[in-house]
Amino acid sequence: MDLLLKFIKFGIVGMSGMIVDFGFTWIFKEKLKVNKYIANSIGFVTAATSNYILNRVWTFKSHEDNIPLEFFSFFTVSVIGLLINNLIIYLLTEKMNVKFYAAKLIAIGVVVIWNFFANYLVTFRS
Protein backbone atom coordinates (compact mmCIF):
# COMPACT_ATOMS: atom_id res chain seq x y z
CA MET A 1 0.00 0.00 0.00
CA ASP A 2 2.87 2.34 0.80
CA LEU A 3 4.30 1.82 -2.70
CA LEU A 4 0.91 2.55 -4.29
CA LEU A 5 0.47 5.75 -2.24
CA LYS A 6 3.96 6.90 -3.23
CA PHE A 7 3.21 6.15 -6.87
CA ILE A 8 -0.02 8.18 -6.67
CA LYS A 9 1.81 11.11 -5.06
CA PHE A 10 4.59 10.75 -7.64
CA GLY A 11 1.90 10.92 -10.32
CA ILE A 12 0.38 14.08 -8.85
CA VAL A 13 3.82 15.68 -8.69
CA GLY A 14 4.38 14.47 -12.23
CA MET A 15 1.19 16.18 -13.39
CA SER A 16 2.42 19.46 -11.97
CA GLY A 17 5.75 18.78 -13.65
CA MET A 18 3.97 18.08 -16.93
CA ILE A 19 2.36 21.53 -16.75
CA VAL A 20 5.78 23.08 -16.11
CA ASP A 21 7.32 20.94 -18.87
CA PHE A 22 4.69 21.74 -21.49
CA GLY A 23 4.63 25.41 -20.48
CA PHE A 24 8.37 25.92 -20.84
CA THR A 25 8.53 23.76 -23.97
CA TRP A 26 5.73 25.77 -25.58
CA ILE A 27 7.28 29.13 -24.68
CA PHE A 28 10.69 28.16 -26.04
CA LYS A 29 9.44 26.29 -29.14
CA GLU A 30 6.49 28.43 -30.20
CA LYS A 31 7.29 31.91 -28.89
CA LEU A 32 11.10 31.97 -28.89
CA LYS A 33 11.43 29.65 -31.94
CA VAL A 34 14.04 27.43 -30.28
CA ASN A 35 14.73 24.00 -31.83
CA LYS A 36 12.06 21.52 -30.67
CA TYR A 37 14.59 19.18 -29.03
CA ILE A 38 16.29 22.00 -27.15
CA ALA A 39 12.89 23.41 -26.13
CA ASN A 40 11.84 19.93 -25.01
CA SER A 41 15.04 19.59 -22.98
CA ILE A 42 14.51 22.96 -21.28
CA GLY A 43 10.95 21.98 -20.36
CA PHE A 44 12.05 18.60 -19.11
CA VAL A 45 14.95 19.92 -16.97
CA THR A 46 12.79 22.67 -15.46
CA ALA A 47 10.12 20.13 -14.59
CA ALA A 48 12.72 17.73 -13.16
CA THR A 49 13.95 20.43 -10.79
CA SER A 50 10.47 21.29 -9.52
CA ASN A 51 9.64 17.58 -9.29
CA TYR A 52 12.73 16.90 -7.18
CA ILE A 53 11.70 19.48 -4.61
CA LEU A 54 8.09 18.25 -4.41
CA ASN A 55 9.06 14.57 -4.36
CA ARG A 56 11.71 15.13 -1.70
CA VAL A 57 9.30 16.96 0.59
CA TRP A 58 5.95 15.30 -0.10
CA THR A 59 6.19 11.97 -1.92
CA PHE A 60 9.23 10.37 -0.31
CA LYS A 61 9.61 12.65 2.75
CA SER A 62 13.36 12.44 2.43
CA HIS A 63 15.57 13.25 5.41
CA GLU A 64 18.80 12.87 3.44
CA ASP A 65 21.30 15.46 4.68
CA ASN A 66 23.36 15.36 1.50
CA ILE A 67 20.89 17.25 -0.66
CA PRO A 68 23.38 17.92 -3.50
CA LEU A 69 24.07 14.17 -3.85
CA GLU A 70 20.38 13.33 -3.66
CA PHE A 71 19.56 16.00 -6.26
CA PHE A 72 22.39 14.70 -8.47
CA SER A 73 20.91 11.20 -8.27
CA PHE A 74 17.41 12.50 -9.06
CA PHE A 75 18.75 14.63 -11.89
CA THR A 76 20.73 11.71 -13.33
CA VAL A 77 17.56 9.61 -13.38
CA SER A 78 15.80 12.55 -15.05
CA VAL A 79 18.52 12.95 -17.69
CA ILE A 80 18.26 9.27 -18.56
CA GLY A 81 14.51 9.84 -18.72
CA LEU A 82 15.13 12.86 -20.98
CA LEU A 83 17.15 10.70 -23.37
CA ILE A 84 14.34 8.13 -23.44
CA ASN A 85 11.84 10.99 -23.86
CA ASN A 86 13.68 12.53 -26.82
CA LEU A 87 14.23 9.12 -28.45
CA ILE A 88 10.52 8.36 -28.28
CA ILE A 89 9.63 11.81 -29.63
CA TYR A 90 12.13 11.38 -32.45
CA LEU A 91 10.85 7.93 -33.40
CA LEU A 92 7.20 8.96 -33.25
CA THR A 93 7.54 12.32 -35.05
CA GLU A 94 10.22 11.49 -37.62
CA LYS A 95 9.52 7.83 -38.33
CA MET A 96 5.80 7.47 -37.63
CA ASN A 97 4.55 11.00 -38.45
CA VAL A 98 2.89 11.53 -35.04
CA LYS A 99 2.26 15.18 -34.08
CA PHE A 100 4.88 16.63 -31.74
CA TYR A 101 2.72 17.20 -28.64
CA ALA A 102 0.98 13.81 -28.97
CA ALA A 103 4.42 12.19 -29.18
CA LYS A 104 5.57 14.20 -26.17
CA LEU A 105 2.56 13.01 -24.16
CA ILE A 106 3.29 9.38 -25.03
CA ALA A 107 6.95 9.86 -24.13
CA ILE A 108 6.01 11.33 -20.75
CA GLY A 109 3.82 8.30 -20.04
CA VAL A 110 6.72 5.92 -20.66
CA VAL A 111 9.29 8.00 -18.79
CA VAL A 112 7.14 8.38 -15.66
CA ILE A 113 7.41 4.62 -15.05
CA TRP A 114 11.21 4.74 -15.45
CA ASN A 115 11.50 7.82 -13.20
CA PHE A 116 9.35 6.44 -10.40
CA PHE A 117 11.08 3.10 -10.02
CA ALA A 118 14.59 4.48 -10.50
CA ASN A 119 13.97 7.14 -7.85
CA TYR A 120 12.15 4.76 -5.51
CA LEU A 121 14.96 2.20 -5.69
CA VAL A 122 17.96 4.53 -5.91
CA THR A 123 17.44 8.22 -5.09
CA PHE A 124 14.97 7.99 -2.21
CA ARG A 125 15.64 4.48 -0.94
CA SER A 126 15.06 4.24 2.79
Automatic annotation (TrEMBL):
It is found in: Membrane. It is a multi-pass membrane protein. The chain crosses the membrane at residues 6-28, 37-54, 74-93, 105-122. Residues 9-124 form the GtrA/DPMS transmembrane domain. Keywords: Membrane, Transmembrane, Transmembrane helix. GO terms for biological process: polysaccharide biosynthetic process. Its main location: membrane. One of its GO terms (cellular component) is plasma membrane. Belongs to the GtrA family. This is GtrA family protein. It comes from Haoranjiania flava.
